[in-house]
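Lab notebook: predicted structure, single chain.

Context: the supervisor wants predicted structures on file for every construct in the current expression panel, including those that have not yet been purified. This is the next one on the list. No modifications to the sequence; it matches the entry in the shared construct table.
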Amino acid sequence: MRLFGGSLTLSADIYKKITKDLLLNAPIPAQSGFNSQWQNIGRIDNNGVELQITSFNINKNDFSWRTDFNISFNRNKVKDLGGAEFIPVNTGGGWQNNVGRVIVGQPIGTMFGYVFDGVYQIDDFTWDNNSDPSIPHEDRNYTLKEGLPAYSGTALPGRMKYEDANGDGFINDDDRKVIGDSNPVHFGGLNNTLTYKNWDFSIFFAWSYGNEIYNASKVRLNGVAEWMNITQDYFENHWTPDNPSNEAFAYGSIDPQIASSYYVEDGSYLRLKTASLGYTLPKDITNKMGIDSIKFNLIGNNLLTWTKYTGWDPEVNFNNPLLTGFDRIAYPRSRNFTLSLTATF
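Prediction complete. Output recorded below exactly as produced.
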């Protein structure tokens, strides 16, 4: 659609894509001697809308201003897995390998695990001489109070607590559930280009909204072992008897093999992706030099990022397409600047 003499153009793409016979590493009966096999099975539906707007805000002899805007919405859902209800997603790396699932009725990119329910406090327990608070914390023989469930008997003050999702009084595999989604509600970009005589300037913003990231970096950076680094935030806020935090557990009490919502964070971001400033030498100068044109450019990339994500970079893209929002201390995108000269003969 073109409006106002072509100064505003709009385009929209609406689609529904049905993909069948997906190539997936599906589990097979153990009698075969193997755990899984690559098979062409299942069906996934993708529905989406993509919008693009271009506006020529000002277009005069010495000055012009153009704006390009795009936004995309996509929803995918697993419709069939060849009879299976789900297929586990293995991320590898030694710790927390199974943090995702491909589940019928859910989108690709689903995170699966326990719901983090805070930290066990001293008042949740009794100990040998409950009336003698002078007994040092590390010397007490703690017993969890009746009615408070624990995972595999690992409950101690300062340890992670999980939700008893089915209410049966025990915390086991049956209490795991969907805890996150890698897919954004929408994502897009906004670019503005301005020219004034021999100068040109452009600035490009990109964003993603509503996606979640499984920040597995916390396994290694939140006190899992004495020989590993810890973040300053964890160091200052972790649980101690004198600092009964309900968000950051005690040092050394992380459950490195247990996937939970503790690691799931909002991955939304707005990033100043690129800004460039250019200058083209006037024609009367380049003609005297026997050159058609000379242009200088200064370009900056990844200049600013606004996000609540606590990892190094919210723009993660894990190498397993079944769980792209997985971060295991991924190397962040660097801020860089480029100065260039372009000559045309």
